Amino acid sequence: MGIDIDIDIDKATGGATVLKQERALHTRHALVRSAAEVFERHGYVRAKLTEISAGAGVSPGALHFHFENKAAVAATVQAVAAESLRRAARTATRRPDLDPLRRLTDASYALAERLRQDVVARAGSRLSGDEACRTEVDLGAEWRACVHGLLTEAAARDLLAGGVSRADATASVVAATTGLEVLGRTDPEWLSPETLTRVWRVTLPRLAAPGALSRLPPGPGA
Amino acid sequence: MGIDIDIDIDKATGGATVLKQERALHTRHALVRSAAEVFERHGYVRAKLTEISAGAGVSPGALHFHFENKAAVAATVQAVAAESLRRAARTATRRPDLDPLRRLTDASYALAERLRQDVVARAGSRLSGDEACRTEVDLGAEWRACVHGLLTEAAARDLLAGGVSRADATASVVAATTGLEVLGRTDPEWLSPETLTRVWRVTLPRLAAPGALSRLPPGPGA
Predict the structure, then answer these.
(1) How far apart are CA A66 and CA B149, in angstroms?
(2) How far is CA A167 from CA B40, B177, B195, B207, in A?
(3) Can you give the residue ranges of the HTH tetR-type domain (chains A, B) (predicted)?
(4) Which of B8, B103, B118, B125 is deepest in the core (most CB within 10 A)?
(5) B198 to chain A: which residues are within 8 Å by CB?
(6) Is residue B213 less than 8 Å (CB to CB) from chain A?
């Protein structure tokens, strides 16, 4: 019976610990989301920690339990955004059954949708270009490398149209997609599948060799 | 002789006033340029007035003689940038002898060059998109209206290629040029004529009707 009681106590304590961890995780998520909203509204420098904790429905003390200072909050927003955006890009680009131009357009739709729907992705993406809170995360550089890699593969497989160099293609795609991301910060319509399709409808037929194009419907990936 | 002396005194006073005005104008120019450099380095919120006056080689008091506060400095940087960029765009677009697509590409080269060469244009352009110091100047909106106007004219004159709507064309050109402007803030190479030509080489042949294209060399305007 003594054993039973011990087990019961253990179970009760374990349950309480799990509950506490869950609550802590929930608070942390709420803080990251609130921080993203505040960073998006005011920018990094003017964002106030009190507004972030209030937005998450917790005390300033609870925020400080999770984050040492504003830089730590911003670094976490960037890290969470990076994880979310990298996952979206990976899902689209790691498809050996699809050709590289199709993977490129699929990745652009996936990233735009993530940015449009998710304030943490959007705020983190913006923070990673803000010299006031530089971290090691540089999402712009990661995207440029991704575009360059896929277009290099397309060039190697003779999928690029004649008269268009890999450098021309990379500059165009990077410029257009970077523009959409920045314009989408103030007007989410720029990140809609419809707008992205407008841009690909102009760009893609010039990038792709005639044979490749028939397999590349300019529209959201299936 | 009394008259001669009077005239001499008038001349001397007039000369001193002109000299004083010239010096004030020179100081004001130096302050605007230094402010642009400081805004570009630190962003609006973190920019310090003492660094701006020091950069112009004047005292903080001299800065306050010209500008009431940081918002007034930023508003002036934006106004000077707007004037400079509008002049560059006007020179390119007010050419009734050239077709609207050629005027569009010419304007893009002129604006990119202005942004690349002139720190005030660059800083003012960036400030006009910064919610921390909104003024009535919205250079992004002006450029979008300019692109839209020229492409509307091109569509009306049957210069757009079949299969490309005016909305497709506008979205592509606005996205790509906005991207170049933003990328050029950290790497001026994105604003070079070479990079712009890469982008136009991909975009233009898809925008222009076959007949129009032969008259549209994708390169800096003559």
Answers:
(1) 51
(2) 28, 17, 9, 20
(3) 25-85
(4) B125
(5) 165, 167-168, 171-172
(6) no
Print pLDDT tens along chain B (222 aa).
Answer: 444 444 455 555 677 888 888 998 999 999 999 999 999 999 999 999 999 999 999 999 999 999 999 999 999 999 999 999 999 999 999 998 999 999 999 999 999 999 999 999 999 999 998 888 888 889 999 999 999 999 999 999 999 998 889 999 999 999 999 999 999 998 999 999 999 999 999 999 889 988 776 555 555 543
Comparing A6-10, A39-43, A51-55, B80-84, the range with the smallest average pLDDT is A6-10
Say which DSSP state A218 is in: S
Residue B14 touches partner A, C-beta closer than 8 Å:
no
Name the CATH superfamily, with its identifier, for domain A78-222: Tetracycline Repressor, domain 2 (1.10.357.10)
Residues 6 or more apart whose Cβ sits within 8 Å of residue A143: A89, A111, A174, A177, A178
Q: Nearest CA of chain A to the CA of B183: how many Å?
A: 8
Question: Which residue bears the tokens 């660094």?
Answer: B51
In angstroms, what separates the C-alpha of B22 from chain A's closest C-alpha?
A: 37
Contacts of A182 in chain B (CB under 8 A): 178-179, 182
Please report the number of interchain residue pairs, chain A to chain B, with beta-carbon separation below 8 angstroms: 112
Superfamily, domain B79-222: Tetracycline Repressor, domain 2 (1.10.357.10)
In chain A, the largest separation of any two C-alpha atoms, in whole Å, equals 84
Is residue B222 within 8 A of residue B141, CB to CB? The reply is no
CATH of A1-67, one of 1.10.10.60, 3.40.50.300, 3.20.20.140, 3.40.50.2000: 1.10.10.60
Which alpha helices (DSSP H) does B128-165 contain, by range? 139-156
Complex ipTM > 0.90: no
Q: Residue A28 in contact with residue A64, Cβ under 8 Å?
A: no
pLDDT in tens, A115-137: 999 999 999 999 998 888 888 88
Chain B hits for A43, CB-CB cut-off 8 Å, are 45, 130-132
Give me the residue label for tokens 């490398």: A145
Q: Would you call B203 and A199 a contact, using CB atoms and an 8 Å cutoff?
A: no
